[in-house]
Amino acid sequence: MKILVTGGAGYKGTVLVRKLLDQGYDVTLLDNFMYGYEPVMHLATNSKLEIIKHDIRNGIPGMKDYDVIFHLAGISGFPACASNPHSAQLINVEAVRQISRDLSPGQMLINASTTSMYGKSGEPCDENTPVDPVSSYAQTKHAAEQILHDKPNVVSLRFATVFGFSTRMRMDLMVNDFVYKAVKEKVIVLFDSFAKRTFIHVEDAADCYIFAMKNFELLKGGIYNAGGNNLNFSKEEIAEKIRKKVDFSIINSEVKDKDLRHFIVNFDRIEKMGFKPARTVEDGIDELIRIYGFYEYFSHYKTI
After folding, report:
1. Stated pTM of the model
2. For a surface tag, which of 30, 44, 68, 199 has the fewest beta carbons within 10 Å of its beta carbon?
3. What is the CATH number of the domain that holds 62?
């Protein structure tokens, strides 16, 4: 079985590629390496790994040669898409349109999507809830889902906000950012502290991708929220979980957050299929505290 991971040098991609290699699969990692090569250097000597530097705006070379395609490449998150709207459209939407055209019926495509498209409902959301993509990021990911919706050999995974350690860290993600500020700056400023989000550890996210591949016949043609029902928390609840482990101050600001998301997500559909995250937010906080003891946040770790 030949597996392609687009965005394989990214935050989730590096973890997914490592896990696939550990399980003995032949993997091609495709990435434009805009954040450098360091995140994948620990994998580069593996004989089962092929690394291709390529921009998916130019299509995917030899796409029909792969049995499984994990499509993770894209501009991720509200700030990055807001700063680069044209690139976000080309990469998150138009590149998916090309992938959809080139996809063969016998191939498996597992598409990375997001729960961010549920917007600011404030109510529990499942896969049948009308979406409300309030950010350009969520809008592009919803557009990509719409492009792929009539393909029977596609699974779209709407991931919760990811947290935890990866060799390609993302510091714009809430738990990662909050723990860093608690450890290094000793203060967290909360905007809209009531706002609820849902979370998943990056290791569990990678496990979910692999679960979708191994259970593709069961899941194909569907959209699935990817996370756990026990991982819905407000910003304030996340900050208080961190404060149980680190001494720092919490400041509640009256300024409204530009990120308007506020929702609770139901994960019954994927749980009934057999997937449930194994790690808690506390697990991620513990590992991040250890890492941030020596880690400094340099500009080349930014998403924008």
Report:
1. 0.95
2. 44
3. 3.40.50.720
